[in-house]
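Figure 6 in text form: structure in, sequence out.
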């Protein structure tokens, strides 16, 4: 897990000409946890904070790299404990954020693939616990996000089907 994390984080360290404080805080947290044999989730919060900070300050490449690292950590953690729905939800959120970053960077196909993966996870969460309103709310948001991406890509019929499913689910939630 630590080796996978180091490989995923490598491009970030090289991409930043002047590492900002949040990226360095994340790296320091990661290395401390790695040295103590900690699990991925312990430094997941630091990854999230660094990604958000980089996104707000215009370091979109750094935000993308941190998001990819966070996603890799969560995938590894879920591989070790596949029953952890909370981690699957966190992975769906990470995929949504990466999808947004890819879309803003003009990488529509990558954005769609990430949004589809997130949607599949959200469907899995609702299937596992159909009474959880938060899972359904996340599913509705993912449906709308993918609908918008499909519409931008010129796939109006697919976008409409997704939007209709979102609308039906949103009405159920009200």
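Output sequence:
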């Amino acid at each position: 897990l630590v080796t996978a994390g180091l490989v995923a984080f490598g491009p970030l360290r090289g991409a930043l000409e002047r590492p900002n404080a949040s990226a360095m805080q994340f790296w320091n947290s990661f290395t401390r946890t790695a040295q103590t044999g900690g699990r991925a989730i312990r430094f997941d919060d630091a990854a999230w904070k660094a990604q958000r900070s980089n996104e707000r300050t215009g370091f979109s490449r750094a935000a993308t790299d941190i998001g990819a690292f966070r996603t890799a950590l969560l995938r590894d953690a879920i591989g070790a404990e596949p029953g952890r729905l909370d981690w699957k939800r966190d992975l769906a959120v990470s995929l949504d954020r990466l999808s947004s970053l890819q879309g803003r960077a003009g990488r529509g196909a990558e954005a769609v693939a990430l949004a589809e993966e997130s949607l599949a996870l959200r469907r899995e969460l609702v299937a596992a616990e159909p009474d959880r309103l938060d899972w359904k709310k996340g599913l509705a948001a993912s449906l709308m996000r993918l609908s918008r991406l499909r519409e931008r890509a010129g796939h109006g019929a697919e976008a409409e089907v997704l939007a209709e499913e979102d609308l039906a689910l949103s009405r159920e939630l009200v």
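Caption detail: Residues 60-80 form the longest helix (21 residues).
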